[in-house]
Amino acid sequence: MQNKVTFDLPCVRGTLTLQRPLADLTWMRVGGPAEVLFQPADIDDLSSFLAALATDVPVFTMGVGSNLIVRDGGISGVVIRLGRGFNTISIADGIVTAGAAALDAHVARKAAEAGLDLTFLRTIPGTIGGAVRMNAGCYGAYVADVLTSVTVVRRDGSVAELAVKDLQLAYRSSVLPDGAVIVAARFTPAAGDPAVLAQRMTDQLAKRDETQPTRDRTAGSTFRNPVGYSSTGRADDTHDLKAWKVIDNAGLRGVALGGAIMNVKHSNFLTNAGGATAADLEDLGELVRKKVYAGQGITLDWEIMRVGKRLGDDSAE
Fold it and tell me: How many helices and strands, by DSSP H and E, does the chain display?
């Protein structure tokens, strides 16, 4: 492994690490290195770095790696990982402001203590930045329901405030300016009794632990629930067909490839059962997609983000 890069690196106050392995920074524990990992000290550090970085250098922002597969060949360019300078949570006048690196669970708890209902975030793994980008949701509630605005640092280093309408939030998706990094988000949740909200989160955690493989190496739900299909299998305007159900219908619960397996406890959880490579995981996911489509005519779309290069491939997807 060579500790050199093919582009000039600006001076920073944070930390720059060359050829930093990323496997230990993801929940799946797989993947190659980042050509450069940048952990900025604060917004000003991030802004000046991006302003000075050559515009042809690719930039990717990662959180805690809870919904991510880094391919075995690693990631070219700069990977930005926000840390302590971006994890503050403040509450005033019914508005919750959270840094992009704040954990979803911590934001939910802090809000509940203040009598504000962000309880749906309690069981969502990851950080606020990722939750906004993916319009995360569960129990019938989504980020789009409570988000009012975000602060981003654009690829040219400028700082901008974007209203929620600018993000075009949809099911598990958003639209951001190319290369923009979310650094903070503001929410206006409904009020609620703190004790009631706390109990709701306790109940949600118990339900999650009962139905999901929370102790296994997964990245959360692997595929989005199919849109435009009912539980009867007919294409229509309802969205009540679950990804796990079509995987089960294809007889793929527990199917394995290398060290990867579709979890026996919940078949929509692609799992590193031990010794899996990123290729094992991605190839198993693609095998499931192929068999589900062949047998049921349903296309499963990935919910897990897959980034970087496969080994032996000089191009990133």
Answer: 7, 17
| 89: Cβ contacts below 8 Å, ≥ 6 apart | 96, 97, 98, 99, 102, 106, 107, 110
Give the Cα separation of 157 and 50 in Å (integer): 5
CA-based nearest residue to 41, from 73, 19, 16? 16
Q: Which residues contact 259 (CB under 8 A, 6 or more apart)?
A: 272, 273, 274, 275, 276, 277, 280
User: Active-site residue 13, yes or no?
Assistant: no
Catalytic residue among 221, 267, 289, 310: 221
Q: Domains along the chain?
A: 15-84 (3.30.43.10), 85-192 (3.30.465.10), 214-307 (3.90.78.10)
Question: pLDDT by residue (tens digit) across 22-50?
Answer: 999 999 999 999 999 999 999 999 999 99
Residue type present at position 45: D
E strand segments, 130-287: 137-138, 141-142, 147-153, 159-163, 181-187, 217-218, 256-257, 260-262, 270-272
pLDDT one-digit tens code per residue, 131-172: 999 999 988 899 999 999 999 999 999 999 999 999 999 988
Placement of tokens 């990935």 in the chain: 302
In terms of DSSP H, where are the helices of the chain?
43-52, 104-113, 128-133, 143-146, 194-211, 243-249, 278-296
Inter-helix orientation angle 104-113/194-211, to 10°: 150
Residues in the chain: 317
Of 172, 200, 217, 310, the catalytic one is 172
- Whether residue 303 lies in the annotated active site: yes
pTM for the predicted model, two decimal places = 0.91
| Residue tagged 């669970």 (tokens) | 105
